[in-house]
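Worked example 3 (structure in, sequence out).
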């Protein structure tokens, strides 16, 4: 028997949940077969792939030593299972079920024809969600590029059946939407699916349009957040399926300093790294750069291994050189447009300034480096691992626009007075974050506490919240929706129940 990494499964494979002891006791397998075992009890451990010329119960007993008698998931051809064993399995969790949960049962095709979502499943591997709107100049321009890309891929690529695109519109006008989608060769989410559309915008944290997000339909994981760069940089689809690569591989090559000296990217190994996407023409970028220069100096003087790599979005090399002259760190050469683009694609950059922080192995610490640096001017919390609960202030308020946020408003004017409120909701926040991290998914909810200050008053006024304190809310700015719980006492059980009901979509939203 060979244990190896899992590769994408063919479409005729299914996910079936079953206890290992039940499977082993069946003693029926005498055929050549590949079995993929996903250990439900240890979601942080990698799956196993068992390959055997005759995968018998004895083989599986050996494999059982790796995961015990806890439940697991088998990925195998459904026809291989005798009915007594199949009856003890959960319902299949196939690809088409995932697509239906994401998109619903029906889509709208060209000329308003109805498309059954189940029909998309095989041999689909990658789904592109295209977020856009009619009468939007950038969307109209991208639409032309995407149409050409899609047509070329469907005609020439050996993977033509493994990719589909679905348009998710923010249009409100039926006629404008119909005019925009009528020439699209890919299907669209119906315009009346407002709730589903908003869920997709929030789930994939879309903050600007046009946006194209590629999803692996066998795992549900995001493969690439910035599909616009895929369409631009790989017009023939030769790099399909555009999956993420390690930072060290993407950044590989020479890096420069502002004095003209060059060094190889391998010098970054063993250091914490900030990948800084910025440009001289952007005023918020220049403001952050001034702060970041001082933070960089303090961290380096403390003896910690820290480096920053500037990835320019400047419009000319002269602008790049002028801006880079203010920076004491490294940069990807401006002339290396391909490498700059691949780094943008790797981290799905949708706006600047953005500071991505990586650990010493090149793994993501946080995408919110800008907020972390501005909140810790003395660099006491370097390398700035994200906190489960944030105290709402001017530097992190921008995150309220990135998806649903739980905000607990309390009667406190001084910073220290917020600590009991933070301790109250932190265990719930940590539980939610850990749950989604185990699934390698981003948390669907951010957590804040807010005291009494001018910014909080402005937020209450904008969202038309009552003046009560404590006040437990979930604010979804992109959906212009709020969920409010006004009770005399906030307890951990009340918070947890409120969060669970929101995630289960049991709460009724009020308009903002």
């Amino acid at each position: 028997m060979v244990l190896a990494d899992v590769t994408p499964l063919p479409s005729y494979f299914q996910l079936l949940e079953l206890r290992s002891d039940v499977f082993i006791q069946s003693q029926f397998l005498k055929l050549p077969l590949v079995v993929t075992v996903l250990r439900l009890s240890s979601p942080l451990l990698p799956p196993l792939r068992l390959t055997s010329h005759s995968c018998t119960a004895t083989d599986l007993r050996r494999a059982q030593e790796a995961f015990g008698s806890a439940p697991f998931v088998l990925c195998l051809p459904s026809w291989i299972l005798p009915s007594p064993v199949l009856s003890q399995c959960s319902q299949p969790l196939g690809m088409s079920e995932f697509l239906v949960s994401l998109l619903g049962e029906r889509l709208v095709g060209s000329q308003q024809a109805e498309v059954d979502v189940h029909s998309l499943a095989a041999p689909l591997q990658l789904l592109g969600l295209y977020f856009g709107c009619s009468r939007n100049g950038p969307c109209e321009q991208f639409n032309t590029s995407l149409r050409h890309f899609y047509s070329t891929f469907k005609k020439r690529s050996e993977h033509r059946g493994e990719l589909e695109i679905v348009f998710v519109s923010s249009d409100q006008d039926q006629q404008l939407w119909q005019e925009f989608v009528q020439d699209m060769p890919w299907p669209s989410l119906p315009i009346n699916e407002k709730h589903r559309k908003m869920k997709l915008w929030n789930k994939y944290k879309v903050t600007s349009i046009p946006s194209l997000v590629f999803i692996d339909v066998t795992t549900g994981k995001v493969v690439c957040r910035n599909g616009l760069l895929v369409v631009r940089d790989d017009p023939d689809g030769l790099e399909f399926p555009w999956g993420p690569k390690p930072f060290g591989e993407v950044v590989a090559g020479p890096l420069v300093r502002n004095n003209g000296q060059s060094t190889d990217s391998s010098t970054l190994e063993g250091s914490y790294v900030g990948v800084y996407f910025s440009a001289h023409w952007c005023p918020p970028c220049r403001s952050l750069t001034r702060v970041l220069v001082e933070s960089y100096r303090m961290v380096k003087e403390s003896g910690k291994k820290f480096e920053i790599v500037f990835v320019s979005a400047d419009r000319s090399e002269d602008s790049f050189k002028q801006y880079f002259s203010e920076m004491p760190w490294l940069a990807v050469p401006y002339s290396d447009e391909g490498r700059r683009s691949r780094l943008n694609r790797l981290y799905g950059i949708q706006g600047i300034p953005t500071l991505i922080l990586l650990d010493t192995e090149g793994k993501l610490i946080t995408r919110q480096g800008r907020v972390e640096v501005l909140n810790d001017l003395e660099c006491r919390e370097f390398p700035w691992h994200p906190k489960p609960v944030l105290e709402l202030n001017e530097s992190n308020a921008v995150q309220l626009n990135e998806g649903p946020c739980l905000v607990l408003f309390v009667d406190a004017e001084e910073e220290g007075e917020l600590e009991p409120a933070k301790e109250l909701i932190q265990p719930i926040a940590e539980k939610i974050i850990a749950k989604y991290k185990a699934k390698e998914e981003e948390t669907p909810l951010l957590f804040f506490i807010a005291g009494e200050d001018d910014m909080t008053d402005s937020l209450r006024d904008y969202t038309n919240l009552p003046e009560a304190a404590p006040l437990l809310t979930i604010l979804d700015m992109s959906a212009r929706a709020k969920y409010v719980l006004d009770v005399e006492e906030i307890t951990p059980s009340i918070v947890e129940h409120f969060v669970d009901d929101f995630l289960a979509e049991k709460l009724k939203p009020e308009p903002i």
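Notes: The CA atoms of residues 96 and 484 lie 36 Å apart. Residues 1-60, 66-93 have pLDDT under 50 and may be disordered.
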